Amino acid sequence: MKKILFISDFFADEMRGGAEIYDDILINLLQEDDVKVVKLKTTEISDKHIRLYRNCGFHVLVSNFCFMKHDVGGELTSHPGSYSILEHDHKYIMDRDPSPYENFEVPPERIINRVFYANAKNVFAQSKIHAEVIQKNLRINNVIHLGISLWTDEQLEIIERNLNGEKLDDVSIIKSDNPTKNTAVTLEYCRSKQLPCVLIGSSNYEEYIEQLSNHATYAYIPKVLETFNRVLLEARMLDCKILTTNLNGCISEDWFTQYKGKELIEYVREQRPRVYNDIKTALFETKEVERGDHITVILNAYRRPHNLKMQIDAIRSQTTKPAQIWLWVNAHPDNDGYDFKGLDIDRVFHNDHNWKFYGRFAAALLADTEYIAIFDDDTVPGSKWFENCLSTMTTNEGILGSAGVILTGNRYVQHDRCGWPSQNEEVTEVDLVGHAWFFKREWLKYLWQEKPTTWDNGEDIQFAFMAKIHGGIPTYCPPHPPSDKEMHGSVLGNELGIDDKATSTNSAVSHQQFFNERDVCVQTGIKKGWKTVRGITL
Predict the structure, then answer these.
(1) What is the number of structural domains in the chain?
(2) Residues 341 and 478 grouped into a single domain
(3) Full-model pTM
(4) Are strands 415-419 and 399-407 parallel, antiparallel or unpaired?
(5) CA dist., res. 293 & res. 199, Å (int)
(6) Of 145, 174, 192, which residue is a domain's last?
(7) Does the residue 285 lie in any domain?
(8) Tens digits of per-residue pLDDT, 24-59?
(9) Are residues 120 and 256 in the same domain?
(10) 316: which residues sit within 8 A by CB, 6+ positions away?
(11) Strand ranges (E), 141-240
(12) Could you tell me the residue range of the domain that residue 164 belongs to?
């Protein structure tokens, strides 16, 4: 027997909001289909419940979860693919509303619960715009666009009975105490336009539909981006005119303007089995979550510890999950007192010395995975970065990175850039890479085969020329297409990398000294026999 543990803040027997009505219809459809459904409120459940039900073969379906305990979320997240999310609003945003931001692109620091959404088997979205906004902000590929809400046959029959009644030439507005429903603003708008209006509302569905059907127009001025809005569709099924804005998910659907009245009722009725089947199939189909047990990630903390949570969330959100995330901490006053143990990571190397650039590569020697992924502290990858690197390895095996350098002269400053700064469509061979590295662990031996030119600079140069000279290992930039930034190794390079904490602009080391050291590193490699992409010589 198929089994679902259904978790929500409230159920329909205690609250009749749109989310609760939808959930109740879905639960009944599952039960009618011989699926065993156990309902538990977020305030009643613990991590022990999750483990118990998972061990008994239940898939967890999470609806509204504002009151869910931290340990429950942690237990779910630690088992990717064991749960799905039925998303009714925007609980991945601090204020649960993307509408104040241009193109609904929420600043990264306002995003929450990213890992919870990324590790879900499915994230169900009710409308086209809802799905697009989730994907845009969370950079995840497990979102399923359902395309419509759910109504029972009984509800549709009630709507149909009230379809052809006489309508008053005025405007109805749903009375709600919920501030997000914007009743006062909608009422004020209608009055400012001198439109006669009346407040309606009833907990009895038949009475509410009768009220809605008695008025020629239904008005609703949303305060937030509504993920669907059932009332708008009910008004159209009742052949009412609509006065609203584009902040409604149902309006984003192609079919919304095609149907009205009886035709819309029939369309909604026909779509219910399709939506239910899409949900059921996604819940119970076998979908292996690629864990990427062959990748160890190493992050670096020095002067930007505030970037770590964003980096970790982006790494946990990869379409290919890494085996572990390690953190190498170089001593600096900027990270004194930072709670590194509170981060979602597996290992911390907390040093009382600044080992600069090479320390993290030393930590990589302790990894027991095929691949190593290292990130600078200003580098946040797109969700498909590991997937992109593994794909590139099948065609162009080598040291991979997000910011490539092709030398055009025998000084470091003489170069062309590749990767996220220039956005190359194809795999491109380069002389060295930085910001994000992806390579086979066994190649570390080339980095440590000889003492570096300097311990203060140039680990990226040293690694590239030593691997090329001694191992015949080339260096590449995987594709960084402008059309898909989820493939990029760095999506916030300009925003995070150019500040007074960057080593290249650090007042403790002059700009000229920094680049002079890199020139020496380049020239050392060429002297040793480094064959660069453009055949540079001294």
Answers:
(1) 3
(2) yes
(3) 0.62
(4) antiparallel
(5) 58
(6) 145
(7) no
(8) 999 999 999 999 999 999 999 999 999 999 999 999
(9) no
(10) 77, 114, 115, 118, 119, 325, 344
(11) 143-145, 168-174, 197-200, 215-219
(12) 153-271
Secondary-structure percent of the chain, ordered helix, strand, coil, rounded to 5:
40, 20, 45
Contacts of 283-288 with C-beta under 8 Å, sequence gap 24+, read 283/2, 283/4, 283/59, 283/61, 283/84, 283/121, 283/122, 284/2, 284/59, 287/81, 287/121, 288/81
Buried b (16+ CB within 10 A) or exposed e, 204-214: ebeebbbbbbb
For residue 288, tell me if it sits in a domain.
Answer: no
Question: Token match 């920094």: residue?
Answer: 514
Average pLDDT score over residue span 249-272:
96
* Single-letter amino acid, residue 208: Y
More confident residue, 289 or 161: 161
Residue 144 C-beta-side C-alpha neighbours within 13 Å:
18
Which tens digits make up the pLDDT trace of 165-176?
899 999 999 999
116: left (phi over 0), alpha (psi -120 to 50) or beta: alpha
**173: closest CA among 217, 229, 228, 238?**
217
For 111, the token pair is 């995003």
* Residue 289 belongs to a domain: no
Same-domain pairing of 348 and 476? yes
**Are 36 and 59 contacting, i.e. CB atoms less than 8 angstroms apart?**
no
Give 289's pLDDT tier (boundaries 50, 70, 90). very low
Q: Phi, psi (5° rounding) for residue 193? A: -95, 5
pLDDT of 179 higher than 70: yes
**Cα–Cα dist 453/63, whole Å:** 57
| Beta-strand relationship, 3-8 and 123-125 | unpaired
Query: What does the pLDDT average to over 302-313?
Result: 90
**Average of pLDDT values for 220-243?**
96
Confirm if 358 and 330 have CB atoms less than 8 A apart. no
